[in-house]
């Protein structure tokens, strides 16, 4: 990844501008770029009306060919019906209904898998409007300067408590320390990718997905746009603490082997301690000062068994990933599609 490009080529979203007035498209060699917007949704009926209006306004302001790929991740509210109705009214809207709830990262992947390969730029964003659609103009503007990936960095995080902000900060600091991949801090999945990055992403088959890490791993010229993230437009967040912890652990084990190596330390420590304690016990025995002690035995067994089980658990996590990858199951199944060609109706 060209981290120098990402750090020095920043575009701050401080005032409105018009993409139509930009001359930067000449740098990329694209006269009129086409755009796809991918939005995974799960039980977002409460905010859907606002989302629909915002996306339509965005397409009008951009005045470039724009299509919407909306993924229903097994919603149980009115979201599927709302998506279906909009798609019937607007041919630019393409809907993918997954067979069940596969999770945000897989739903996002499903959308990217179905983007028309002739599309110049693809934007990924959440459906709760915390990723403001108006920022898309800035992303496109930056991409036209020649960047393959443009990610949106959160300058402010409204509606998030101290706990979430602090744990996110700790997570990104930790990932930068233990991983060889430079994952930008305060950056979610909201980003723009070009044709090369989209093709590269579609070629990555792993089951356990941390999408923002996958894009960071790719390389390609990257840049950023900073924006202020607002609170949800409605409804409740679908990322519980359990899901956030799961995503963090998945990211850690997918992009670093350090936990596997660290599992060695308790074993080494326990072994060294056992050697010295054995020597101490032998000396005490020779001196005739040994006294049978139940407490000592229990402490030693607890230390050794605890370190052993800890190491086995970490190793088991990696082995479980190998096992799941070896099954070669599809990432998801599609129950239905709207506004797609019949030949595209397949599972990934």
Describe it.
With 348 residues, the protein is α/β, with parallel strands linked by helices. The chain has 2 domains: 3-238 and 330-344, Spore Coat Polysaccharide Biosynthesis Protein SpsA, Chain A, CATH 3.90.550; 258-326. The protein is built from 13 helices and 9 strands. Helix 12 runs antiparallel to helix 13 (294-326). Helix content is 48%, strand content 16%. Helix 4 links the parallel strand 3 and strand 4 (93-98).
Which structural traits does this protein have?
348 residues; alpha/beta; Spore Coat Polysaccharide Biosynthesis Protein SpsA, Chain A; 2 domains
| Annotation field: number of helices | 13
Percent helix range:
40-55%
Q: Would you tell me which CATH topology of the largest domain applies?
A: Spore Coat Polysaccharide Biosynthesis Protein SpsA, Chain A
Give the biggest sheet.
Answer: 9 strands, mixed
Number of domains: 2
SS class: alpha/beta
* Element order: H for helix, E for strand: HEHEHEHEHEHEHEHHEHHHHE
In terms of per-residue confidence, which ranges show pLDDT below 50 for 5 or more consecutive residues? 1-26
CATH uppermost class of the largest domain: Alpha Beta
Counting DSSP E segments of at least 2 residues, the number of strands comes to: 9
CATH superfamily of the largest domain, by name, is Spore Coat Polysaccharide Biosynthesis Protein SpsA, Chain A
């Amino acid at each position: 990844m060209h981290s120098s490009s990402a750090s020095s080529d920043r575009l701050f979203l401080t005032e409105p501008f018009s993409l139509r007035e930009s001359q930067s498209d000449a740098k990329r060699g694209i006269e009129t770029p086409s755009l796809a917007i991918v939005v995974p949704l799960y039980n977002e009926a409460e905010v859907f009306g606002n989302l629909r209006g915002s996306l339509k306004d965005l397409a009008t302001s951009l005045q470039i060919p724009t299509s919407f790929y909306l993924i229903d991740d097994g919603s149980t509210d009115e979201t599927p019906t709302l998506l279906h109705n909009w798609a019937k009214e607007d041919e630019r809207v393409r809907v993918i209904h997954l067979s069940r709830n596969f999770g945000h990262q897989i739903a996002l992947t499903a959308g990217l898998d179905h983007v028309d390969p002739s599309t110049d730029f693809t934007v990924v964003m959440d459906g709760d409007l915390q990723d403001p659609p108006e920022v898309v103009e800035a992303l496109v503007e930056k991409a036209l300067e020649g960047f393959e990936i443009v990610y949106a960095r959160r300058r402010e995080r409204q509606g998030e408590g101290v706990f979430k902000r602090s744990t996110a900060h700790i997570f990104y600091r930790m990932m930068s320390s233990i991983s060889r991949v430079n994952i930008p801090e305060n950056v979610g999945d909201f980003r723009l990718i070009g044709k090369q990055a989209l093709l590269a992403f579609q070629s990555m088959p792993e089951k356990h997905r941390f999408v923002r890490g996958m894009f960071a791993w790719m390389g390609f010229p990257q840049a950023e746009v900073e924006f202020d993230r607002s609170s949800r437009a409605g409804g409740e967040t679908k990322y519980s603490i359990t899901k956030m912890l799961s995503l963090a652990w998945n990211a850690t084990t997918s992009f670093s082997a350090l936990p596997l190596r660290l599992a060695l330390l308790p074993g080494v420590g326990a072994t060294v301690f056992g050697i010295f304690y054995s020597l101490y016990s032998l000396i005490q025995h020779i001196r005739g000062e040994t006294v049978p002690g139940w407490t000592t035995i229990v402490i030693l067994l607890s230390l050794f068994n605890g370190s052993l089980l800890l190491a086995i658990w970490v190793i088991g996590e990696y082995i479980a990933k190998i096992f799941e990858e070896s099954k070669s199951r599809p990432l998801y199944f599609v129950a239905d599609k709207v506004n797609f060609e019949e030949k595209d109706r397949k599972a990934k």
